[in-house]
């Protein structure tokens, strides 16, 4: 049963079927099914910055298997998981991070603490109660994967490498649908295509352990505070318990992303927001912790999720597409190199002394 950790808006998140893009149908602009699906996707993303996706070609059993492997990983002892430790600092963003190791935050959180002597310390006063494992392309020249020894979790590396490739393929499909929905010309679609790279995306396995009521009463903790993703867009699968909430830029309500069989959540990231000059807004989202008086005696159940972050090459300079710059909508963003932007916004994400 889904567990909603807070009282938020009850409006449903729109679901868009992208199945027409699963088969080649000649020129995208001459195929009415492709155009309608692409335009539906673009309308939904323009309205909220997030949407549920169906018709993506990933079978239910594939996601159930991936979540089962994630559970196998996090069921290992801490000593075994630490045989593939995330390194000190932010780069490479790979391997296992224990509970409280990573701190997620928003630009508003940083601004609110600018007067502090130690911003990183202030941000970490509330710990993120989760653990994660980060995986990238085996061909990434910048960030090499950090794998568990084969005897600790046999076949894990192959399974996750295959999952990375599978989700990258779906990401390409989504990018194509966005290009068709926007009605981009060939030159513009080439620029859009450069917003994701098969070498620089990131697969993340996430586990939010059970939280007892007593821990909520005695500790300052969060699961995943409100934040945006700094890549191009994110696709996310979650277990049946749900918990993901996304903020509507119009109503300012957080909306439940109810788990649905054979769908995933797609949310816009910072790079696509900059590329479209705010035509698409980077989606603020969270996995929140409820007030203690709203928690049953059994506490908050564990949660598993699998996000896939799409990113351009690290050296790619992201610029706003000229079609989105007009007299009425002047340019809001300077060109930015992706790795430099990432280093800036993730500056306080990992505490070097918090292993």
The radius of gyration over CA amounts to 20 Å
CATH architecture: Sandwich
* Strand content range: 15-25%
* Helix content percent band: 25-40%
CATH fold topology: Jelly Rolls
Total separate domains: 1
Strand order of the largest sheet: 1-2-12-9-14-6-5-3
CATH homologous group name: B-lactam Antibiotic, Isopenicillin N Synthase, Chain
CATH class: Mainly Beta
- In terms of structural class, how would the helical and strand content be classed? alpha+beta
Walkthrough of the structure:
This protein is α+β, with helices and mostly antiparallel strands and 355 residues long. The chain has a single domain, classed as B-lactam Antibiotic, Isopenicillin N Synthase, Chain (Jelly Rolls, Sandwich), CATH 2.60.120. It is built from 10 helices and 16 strands. β1, α1 and β2 form a beta-alpha-beta unit.
In short, what is this structure?
This protein is α+β, with helices and mostly antiparallel strands. It has helices at residues 32-48, 60-74, 78-81, 107-112, 119-123, 156-182, 186-193, 213-218, 270-275, 338-345, and strands spanning 15-17, 50-54, 95-97, 127-128, 131-135, 202-208, 221-222, 224-227, 233-238, 245-247, 254-256, 264-268, 285-287, 303-310, 317-318, 336-337.
């Amino acid at each position: 049963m889904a567990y909603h950790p807070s009282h938020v808006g009850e409006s449903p998140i729109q679901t868009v079927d992208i199945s027409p893009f699963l088969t080649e149908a000649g020129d995208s602009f001459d195929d009415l099914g492709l155009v309608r699906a692409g335009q539906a996707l673009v309308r939904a993303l323009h309205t909220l910055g997030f949407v549920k996706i169906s018709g993506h070609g990933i079978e239910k059993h594939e996601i159930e298997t991936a979540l089962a492997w994630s559970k196998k990983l996090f069921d290992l002892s801490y000593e075994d998981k630490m045989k593939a430790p995330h390194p000190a600092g932010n780069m490479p963003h790979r391997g296992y991070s224990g509970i409280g190791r990573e701190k997620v935050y928003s630009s508003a959180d940083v601004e609110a603490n600018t007067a502090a002597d130690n911003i990183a310390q202030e941000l970490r006063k509330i710990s993120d109660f989760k653990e994660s494992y980060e995986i990238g392309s085996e061909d990434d020249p910048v960030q090499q994967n950090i794998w568990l020894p084969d005897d600790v979790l046999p076949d894990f590396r192959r399974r996750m490498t295959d999952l990375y490739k599978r989700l990258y393929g779906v990401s390409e499909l989504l990018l194509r649908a966005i290009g068709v929905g926007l009605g981009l010309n060939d030159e513009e679609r080439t620029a859009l295509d450069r917003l994701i790279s098969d070498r620089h995306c990131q697969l993340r396995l996430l586990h939010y352990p059970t939280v007892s009521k007593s821990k909520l009463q005695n500790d300052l903790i969060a699961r995943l505070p409100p934040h945006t993703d700094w890549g191009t867009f994110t696709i996310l699968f979650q277990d049946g318990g749900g918990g993901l909430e996304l903020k509507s830029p119009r109503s300012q309500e957080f909306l439940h992303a109810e788990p649905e069989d054979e769908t995933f959540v797609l949310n816009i990231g910072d790079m696509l927001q900059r590329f479209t000059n705010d035509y698409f807004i980077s989606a603020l989202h969270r996995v929140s912790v409820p007030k203690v008086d709203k928690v049953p005696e059994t506490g908050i159940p564990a949660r598993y999720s699998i996000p896939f972050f799409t990113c351009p090459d690290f050296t790619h300079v992201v610029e706003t597409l000229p079609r989105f710059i007009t007299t009425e909508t002047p340019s809001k963003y300077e060109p930015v190199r992706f790795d430099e932007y990432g280093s800036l916004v993730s500056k306080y994400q990992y505490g070097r002394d918090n292993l």
